[in-house]
Structure formats: structure tokens, C-alpha cells
């Protein structure tokens, strides 16, 4: 279950800091870094040298940039965390200014997970919500798919969509976290759902799929097989039927 960008972090960053991060990313795009003095950077940002220095300190403290001082200049890199934050904002704005397609596709390779999907999906709190909100009475377990290179944009777009929310709940001995989900079609003929959890053991390139049936048996899937996932972005309904 994949991690989703914490949107609150973008809000707490503040407009001026966010603008500085955007400008640093823009100026460093060709070489992956920007080398300049604080005075030169202040001129690029149209702010005082003190303000530029303060922004760099705060962005570095948050892990959004990395700085290396060489003589009187600084070499500034936007970190993967910083780029991930900007990427999430880009796709959120893309939804504002562009009409989203009604559906889009992923392709990925099936692999065996850690065996936790069956435990989590088997919890009545999750099962009931998936049935009510997505129209799926889930088979206990998830299908783990590692996306092929080239589908990063589609994954980021999916994460910024107004998906169906699955609320967290408390069990007998522990708490279970919230998640989001979207309707999907597997290999163009099997109805399913994609689950995006707020906490995950898997990397950003992995998606998890639930269905009312054992997908491995129904469509004879094995580890290493390539599957096609069609994501339906239209308003969710209570049942596929």
C-alpha cells in the first residue's frame, strides 16, 4: 500500500518558500543543481539576500534541498522529497486547468507481497467500507503490481484525484489507518479496485488491487506476469452491477 504525499506539508510550507523551491527547481532543471552566491540567488528570486538565505535554511531543514558550499558559491540540489512535493502540486493544478480523461491505464508486473493484504482486507472495517463505497465485497488479499517504467505520471495523477476515502478505525487490539481507492478494470474484463494507503511497506512504484474474486485463479496469474489496469476516474458508484 503506497505512500501518498502529505498535502498538509505543501500548505505549511508557505507561499514564499514554495515559490523559492519552484524557482530552484526551474533554475537547476538542466544540470540537476544551481551554483550561485546568495546575492545572485536573491536577484533571481527578486528578494533580499537575507530572505534568500532564510529560505535556503528552512528548505534544507525540511529536507527539500541539499546545499554544498564551494568557495563563495553554493551548489544547491532539490532533493527527491522536494521534487515529490512539487510533482504532487503539479498534478493537482493539472486537474484545475485541464479536463481529466475519464480513464487511463497502467501496466505492471505481478509479484508476491508480504502476506499482509489478506489480514488487512479481511478486517470488517475495511471490508464493509469497500462494499459500501466501491461496490466490492473483497476477496481477502491484494494483488501486488509493480508498475513498469513510464507510468510514473499516471500514478502521480491518480494520487491527486478526489478518490473514494476509506476511514481508519479501531479494532480489538490496534488501530487501522485510512486509505483511498479507485475503481479499476483488470486486463479489460475483470472489475476491481485500487487501494492507496497512507502508510505502506512498498515503494512508490507499487499499487495494490482488490477484487470480489481471487484474481490469480480467475485469470490464471503468476508472479512475473504483466497485467493491464484501467483506472476509471468518473464519479464512483455503489456497485459495478
Plain-language structure description:
- By secondary structure, this protein is of the alpha+beta class.
- The protein folds into two domains: 7-97, Orthogonal Bundle (Arc Repressor Mutant, subunit A); 103-232, Riboflavin kinase-like (Elongation Factor Tu (Ef-tu), domain 3, Beta Barrel), CATH 2.40.30.30.
- Helices cover 37% and strands 27% of the residues.
- It has helices at residues 7-13, 15-27, 38-45, 49-61, 80-97, 117-121, 124-134, 152-160, 215-218; strands at residues 34-36, 65-70, 73-78, 103-111, 143-147, 164-166, 169-170, 175-176, 179-186, 190-197, 206-210, 226-232.
- The strands form three sheets. A six-stranded antiparallel β-barrel has the order 4-5-11-10-9-12.
- A hairpin with a 2-residue loop joins strand 2 (65-70) and strand 3 (73-78).
- Helix 2 (15-27) packs across helix 4 and helix 3 crosses helix 4 (49-61).
- The longest helix is centred in the middle third of the chain and has 18 residues, at 80-97.
- It is elongated and about 65 Å long.
- Mean pLDDT is 81; it is low at 1-11 and 235-241.
Entry keywords:
three-stranded antiparallel beta sheet, disordered C terminus, 241 residues, alpha+beta, 12 strands, 2 domains
